[in-house]
Amino acid sequence: xxxHGHGDHxxxxxxxxxxxxxxxxxxxxxxxxxxGGQSAAYGDTVRLGDVDVTFVPAGHVLGSAQIxxxxxxxxxxxxGDYKRRPDPTCAPFVxxxxxxxxxxxxxxxxxxxxxxxxxxxxxxxxxxxxSPDRCVLVGAYALGxxxxxxxxxxxxxxxxxxxFHGAMARLNRLYESxxxxxxPLRHAGEASKSEMAGHVVICPPGALNDRWSRxxxxxxxxxxxxxxxxxxxxxxxxxxxxLIISDHADWDELTLTIRELAPSxxxxxxxxxxxxxxxxxxxxxxxxxxNLVGYEDEDD
Length: 300
What we know:
By secondary structure, the protein is α/β, with parallel strands linked by helices. The protein has 8 helices and 15 strands.
């Protein structure tokens, strides 16, 4: 059972996979044809042995899901990665009251309180308009974050062509095939330096400072990530314009969700477990840490 298509949650080579239609398509796009894939629509229940399995939206990226497991009157919700803020590229998080909530904690420290994404897009556009001879080069995770940035720009009235790194082409097409409109896009590798002046260019974070970026018109280097709240991370990446835009729940969203679901137990993984465990214990909620092997600190 796969919650979503990011590489720290989804791998190729399984004998059988149960996931949403979108996640199966993402896995095929990234890992090749996947045998044994079975799609689960949001809200539909599949019986596996003695357990009823239901997928509900997680609000993280296209096709992302929480997995609800019910057995003999007990309900466990596996959150996967999630956020509670609106995102034009995916279905919003659906809260499911449960007995045990298995939650991520990527930003599980009180210091992490993300600003409204619209304010960050406004900062991007202000820099773009102030430097018409340059471009703004935005580092964004290729699955989910890049498409969200494009849609957030469109929502702020930016209708100009947006240029993208070739590594994003297939995922952009996949999103559009599922009805996510991205507007006019152009492959950066097929454009001249002068054509990209005064425009937004989006690339994977790893391409921000490599040779590929040298062909761009004096780029203003930006990065969209919840980690941009940490100044040292921005400096390490030589980021001139840090954009605090995350596809994960921040501290307030994590604690709000636990309060709303009112579980008797919380199992915490994928991040900063200790602080959230302490918060749960101070609110009389039994909590424990799940120390998973193979967790990767993605560029959010």
